[in-house]
């Protein structure tokens, strides 16, 4: 059984939610995009159920072309103020030691695939179509952990900003707002 390290993305590897950073870059100086975004957000926030609002949370990402998502992701990863450099250094160290790593996130694949390619780490993510989440990992990452174990991998450590992402059989690191790490019990 091989050891594996798991990283969350939002508020763990990057300072905020990656999709919010990408959207912010995309909005840029465009008045029309900003107004359209506010309208879409108002419509989504008016939806009657929290679970329904969650399904549409990434809708705006559907409007951003893949090339722009790639460019914005690379820009974000190049900004030392937006990236958890401590974890990036750990990733480099784990890579030098030959330890396998994966990212597990509730964000959909169109948001995180370029980060996965940039860091050369596979990602397990929620799935969406036309900006609508149809397979959501929020609060369900244990399903991926079980899948990894079935594949003969032992989760050695998990790095995340949420205790909901932790697994009883691994060493869990809680990433706090200022990117400090604490071992979760």
Automatic annotation (TrEMBL):
* Key words, A-Z: Hydrolase
Protein name (record) = Haloacid dehalogenase-like hydrolase
Instruction: Answer whether the UniProt record assigns the keyword Oxidoreductase to this protein.
Output: no
Q: Give the transmembrane region(s).
A: none
Citing just one GO molecular function, the answer is: hydrolase activity
